Input
Amino acid sequence: MGWLSRWFGGKDKAQEAQREPIDLSVFRIDYHSHMVPGVDDGAQTLEESLEMIDALVSLGYQGAVTTPHVYPGMYPNTPETLRPPFERLQAAVAKRHPNFKLALGAEYFLDESLLDAVKSDRELLTPGGRLLFELAFIEPPDSGLLQEFLFEVQMKGLTPVMAHIERYPYWHDALDRYGEWHEQGVTLQVNAASIAGAYGPEIQQAASQCIEKGWVGILGTDAHGMRHIDALHASRTHPAVHTLAQQAKNPKLL
Output
C-alpha cells in the first residue's frame, strides 16, 4: 500500500468517494500493455505476465492487445523476434483463461524509420487494423513528419492510435490539437494510471479534459507491471473513467 499511497494520495479522494467503482467490463479489451515477457521494460517473466492477466480477468476484461516497444537503438523488436515469446504467453493464457483473447501488437516510436516502414509496406503489427505509436516525452515531433505519417497510415487503410496523449507536456497548453486529430480519424488513447494521478495533477487534468471533450477512444493500462493494474483498479471511481465508460463504443480491438 505504500507505493499506492504515494501515487494516489489526496486531492480528489472526496470527489471520488462519491462515485461507485465502475464495472470495467464495459471496456472489454485492454489495448496497450507490455506483457510479452523479456522483450522490453515490461514483464520480464511469464509469471509476471500471467499475474497481470489474472488481474485483468478479475476486473472483467475479455482480452488484451499487448504492445511491446519498438524503438530503434533501444528496443529493436520486429514481428519475427516478438512472435515466439508472444506465442508462449498465448499458450499459457489459453490453458489458464480459455476465453481470454490475446493479440500481438506493438507500440512504435515515431521517427523517420517508422514512416519509411509504412511507406514501403514493411510488416507491422496492427491487430484490428490499428497502429499504435508514441512520441518523445521531452520535445514535440516534427509537425511535417507527424502529419505525413498520419496520412500514410490512413492511406494504407489503417487507423493510427496515438498512445498516452496526456503524457506529452509540450501540448498541455494546446489540447485543442487533439480535437483536430480526433476529427481527422486518429484514435486517441489515455492511460488509467494517469487518470488515477500516477504522473501528477497536470497529466491527470489533461487526460480528464480530453475525455470530457469526447476526443478519447481508448482507455489502456500501458501495463508494465502490477503497479499499472493497481492503478486501473484505483481509477474506477474517477469521474473521467465514468465519463469514458458512458462514451465507450466497444471498438473491435481484436
